[in-house]
Structures are given as C-alpha cells and as structure tokens.
Predict the structure.
Amino acid sequence: MSNVRNAFFKDCVADAFFDLMKNKPVNKITVTEIANRAGVGRMTYFRNFKNKMEIVLYKLEQIHTKYYSTLSTQPKTKLENAFALLNCIYSNKEIYLLIHKQCPFMLLVFFLLKTVNDTDTITENKYMGFWFGYGFSGLIYKWCDEKFKDSPEEILTIVQKWINIEN
C-alpha cells in the first residue's frame, strides 16, 4: 500500500476515533465502531494501529507536523520553539481538551516522546529531557484544566519567569 494511501486511511481512522470520543468514553469505543465510522475494514484498523492510544499519539503527531509545516520560518531559539509549541497547542485546543478529558496521560506520553532522548550518552541531557518533558506535560495538563483561559503569550510569560530561557 502506498504511503499516501496508508496516511489517508490512518487519518480516516483517527478522525473517526476522535469524533466518537466526543460522545463516548474511550474504553467503550470498539474497533468495529471506529472502522465503520471511518469507512474502512477492521483489518485496515489493525494494519495501522495496535490500539486506541496509538491513534491518539498519531493524531498529536499529525497536528504538530502540519502546524510546523505552515510556519513561514522555523523556530530557531528555545524561546521561539516554546512559543511555536504553545501556539500549536492553542490552535488545536478542541483536540487537546478532548484528549485531556478522555485520556490525559497520553499528553504526558506524547511530550515525553518528543523531549526525551534516552539513548543520549550525556547524562545531563537525559535528565534535562525528562525535566522538560514532565514539566511541560504538567503545564499543558493545567492549561487544559483551565480551558485555555490564558493565551500562549501569557503562558510563555509565566514560564519565562520560572526559568531563564535565553534566545
């Protein structure tokens, strides 16, 4: 199966799953329901995903990939990276709120996968990755809890007060 076709099916499954999540708890959603909503067979589901949590990680990865591809210039500094990430999350807050409500630990998993390089041979880098991963996940968790009442700019200002992020 071509990569484009495979991505299309994965997107269909992910969109169907998130649509079902709006009205039903994750643990009550069946593979058959997801496949039917997506207009694909159960085998297409299993060819692309082992479980529902893989769908959540896939959707988050797609959101972030798409967001960063739309930026006119890629972030270069830590501050620019942090702001771009906050804006990406904020511009997709409906999805984040749904994940937060249904399976909040997946946000932790996603950001840990993004920030932690456990194969890094420098101990300091490993610890720093975990510190940022867990800390950032907690920040996003609370931001979701607050229904995104603060803007990305306000969150960035708060974070800058806590830690010294230099350009």
